[in-house]
Amino acid sequence: MNLETRPPRAEPLGVLETAALLRELTAGLIAVDDFDEALSALVRITRDALVGVRWCGFTALRAGEPAGAAASDLQLAGLDDLRYGPDTPALDAIRRREMVGSECLAGEPRWPDWTPRAGELGVRGVISAPVDIDDQVIGAVNLYAGESDVLTPGHQLTAMLLAEHAGLLLAAVRERERRAALSGAQDAALLGDGVIGQAVGVIMTQRGCPPSDALDVLRSAASSLSIPLREVAERLVSTVSRPREN
């Protein structure tokens, strides 16, 4: 019976397990600023947290094109990667904007190319839930069972809550990634500026630190003195360039 048509019933998988999963996901992704790293953490944490879920995957699209995939186990990586074909539960969930799945893939007709591959890898059941990340990236989180009839309405509810929470966390990761890239571009521009670059070189020599740390020292000094960064750099360069008195 397909998950969409199975009548709901009380399940032991519920609030406490789902809450623990969402807390662990938050803790694992709250400081991550790399999208691929975040996906890897998400699928690993989900796999380890949910009883009955043997593997977890994630499929991402950007502007309708494959933008990344992650799998908790390398042997299943191809099941989440749309480059291996569009006939997947993940893309079905993304297109329909609703959760899809099957508690028993034996004889499942909806994904004729994908299902045999999944069966060869030991997958017997699947739930895919769409994940809205931001205005550019969408995706689906995929829960896989190694036995038939173990994915229940409790797993469906967890998948829905997981998808909503993951969307918020991944959107935050994307924003941090964007800000980090912007900050990196700004730092590169500053380091290429004559006097600021010279000042950074002076600090690097004095402290034996990398350029980014030296630039942070300049910024800290500018903030403490409430003067522009360039003026701090000019003062430093002027000081070290001044001839020493005998």
TrEMBL record:
Asked if the record carries the keyword Transcription, the reply is yes
Q: What range(s) does the ANTAR domain occupy?
A: 176-237
Task: Say which species the protein is native to.
Answer: Micromonospora phaseoli
- Does this entry carry the keyword Oxidoreductase? no
**Name of this chain's protein:** GAF domain-containing protein
Q: Which UniProt keywords apply?
A: Transcription, Transcription regulation
- Give the highest taxon in the source lineage: Bacteria
Family matches, as Pfam families: ANTAR, GAF_2
Tell me a Gene Ontology molecular-function term this record carries. RNA binding
